[in-house]
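Title: Prediction job returns without error message
Component: structure pipeline
Severity: low
Priority: P3
Assignee: unassigned

Description:
Job completed but the reporter wants confirmation the result is attached to the right record. Sequence as submitted:
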Amino acid sequence: MVLPWALAVLSLLPLLDAQSPACANLTAVAPITNATLDRLSGKWFYIGSAYRNPEYNESSRLIQAAFFHFEPKHAEDKIILREYQTIGNKCIYSSNSLTVYRENGTMSINESGREHFSDLLLTKHPKTFVLSASWNGKKNVGMSFYADKPEVTQEQKKEFLDTIKCIGIHESEITYSDEKKDLCGPLHMQHEEERKKEKEGS
C-alpha cells in the first residue's frame, strides 16, 4: 500500500504562491539541504491528511494509525524508510528508500514499479512537517501532516488547519489517525532491540 503522502503529484507550490499570505506559515523547501534532511531524521507520526483524489482519499481512510523512521543518507540523496501502519486491525511493516530531489524540493518512492512524488513543506514549528500533492490544480489537491509525537498541541493543529484551508480544503475533509488503535508497538520494540544488538555487535 502506498504511503498516504507518497503520491504521483504536480507541484503544489504555484497554489501556495497564489494563496499567499494565507499560507505564510508554510515554507517550500527548495533546495533540500543536509540541514533539512537532518531535521527530518528520526521517528515521525502520521497525524492526518486530506486528499481530493478519490484513490488516495480512500487509502488514507483505511489507516488507523501510522508511524515511521527516516534515516537520511546525505551522500546518496536517499532516505531510508521504516514504516509501521495499523490497517484493518493489523500491523503492517514495510521498509523502503526515498529518493531526494534536492533542487526542486521533492521526494519520491518506488512501489510496484511506479514512482510516487511529494513536495516537502516545512511549518514554522520544527517538530512538524507537511507533504503535499496536487494533480492539475485544486481539483485533486492534498496534504498529509506529521509530528514527532502521536498527539499534537492545539497550536500545531491550528497550523495544519490553516494550511489546509489556505489551499481550499474544508476541515471536514480531514481524516485523522488514532494512536490508541496502534497495534505496531510490540513489533517496533522487537525491531529496535534487534537493531540495538546489531550495533553493539558491529
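Comment from assignee: result matches the submitted record. The CA atoms of residues 42 and 70 lie 5 Å apart.
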